[in-house]
Specification:
- This protein has 96 residues and is mainly α.
- It contains three helices and no strands.
- It has one domain.
């Protein structure tokens, strides 16, 4: 784990602000993950596809489903990015 040092003239004010900001960001990401998963589930159900097969390229794109499959792939990539961000934030420890 790497240590990041911040300097402040008023750490007693800044430390709680930073802790609150990190917690708020985690809540936002968690809510966005929930919404993204709902969208993925909805698209998966509507299209009747297996997401593992889709990400491996084993699902045929047709004229009728191409845009929805692209949207589903995009949502899955967004989910992966959000989960990575959340994991990073969960490792943050703000010390005095």
């Amino acid at each position: 784990m790497k240590i990041i040092t911040l300097k402040s003239d008023s750490p007693e004010t800044v430390v709680p602000l930073l802790k609150n900001a990190v917690e708020r960001e985690k809540k936002i990401i968690i809510d966005t993950i929930r919404k993204t998963k709902e969208k993925i589930n909805s698209l998966t159900e509507m299209l009747g596809v297996d997401t593992d097969k889709l990400m491996k390229g084993d699902v045929e794109h047709t004229e009728a489903n191409d845009m929805q499959l692209i949207e589903l792939e995009g949502e899955m990539e967004i989910l992966e990015h959000l989960e990575t961000e959340l994991k990073a934030l969960e490792t943050v420890e703000i010390c005095k």
